[in-house]
Amino acid sequence: MQKEYRLRRRNDFRRVFRLGTSAANRQFVVYISPRQAGTGILPGPRIGISVSKKVGNAVVRNRVKRLVKEVTRHWIPDLKEGADVVIIARNPAATMDFYQVESSLRHVFRRAKLFKKYTRP
After folding, report:
1. Which residues pair with 115 in a beta bridge?
2. What pTM was estimated for this model as a whole?
3. pLDDT by 10s per residue, the chain, length 121
4. CATH number of the domain encompassing residue 85
């Protein structure tokens, strides 16, 4: 995922958790918050990923993060502009393959109404 589409600062994560809305399924929780105007940041969405130690060891957590980044990287043109998104992986995500992660994230993103229009990403 390119640098301008990453959510990295602790304050940004905290703002999304505090002010955002959430949608969830068994594998992922997604928090969405509109970005504050006048921040000088590009208008595209920014995505942050959080994987708890409860999901597994470092190898498992990094694998889940890589899968989520790869899936969302292809969807960036189809996501709403100016949204900050935090994706939290739950325990069942540790055993999923790429296509299962893609299907589960598509489901939760649609529940959160993150796509611009109904397009099949």
Report:
1. 79
2. 0.90
3. 788 888 989 999 999 999 999 999 999 999 999 887 655 666 789 999 999 999 999 999 999 999 999 999 999 988 988 899 999 999 999 999 999 999 999 999 999 999 987 555 5
4. 3.30.230.10
Q: Evaluate whether residue 58 is within a structural domain.
A: yes
Residue 30 located in a structural domain: yes
| Residue 22, token pair as written in the block | 């959430």
CA-to-CA dists, residue 112 to 31, 48, 59, 79, angstroms: 8, 16, 29, 11
How many structural domains is the chain composed of?
Answer: 1
The residue assigned the tokens 């940004």 is 12
- For residue 19, the tally of other CB atoms under 10 A from its CB is 13
- Tokens 């959160």 sit at which residue? 112
Distance separating alpha carbons of residues 20 and 62, to the nearest angstrom: 25
- The residue range of the domain holding 17 is 3-111
